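[09:14] KT: can someone run the structure on this one? pasting the chain below
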Amino acid sequence: MLQIKLVAWALGLFGAFTFLVCVLYGLTVPEAYHMHAFLEQVLPAFEWLTWWGFLLGLVESFLYGVYAGIVYVPIYNWLASRYGEAR
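[09:31] RB: done, structure tokens below
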């Protein structure tokens, strides 16, 4: 059985780390390869290269990961208890 708190935190941190990688990537490559259009589409109110946009994007990315963990763990645990191998 998975622990919801542990998985939610792990996925939240993964989402925040991935956001940081995307921003760093956007700052180091030519503008033609930027991901800011994608980030602006998937993160509500995100604005490229503003402190407010950066902090909001970081928080939203973390919360998306937490949401994924909160939804995934009960589904996984239910399926594991119903269809998992007997121990």
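[09:33] KT: thanks! The chain has a mean pLDDT of 93.
[09:34] RB: yep, looked fine to me
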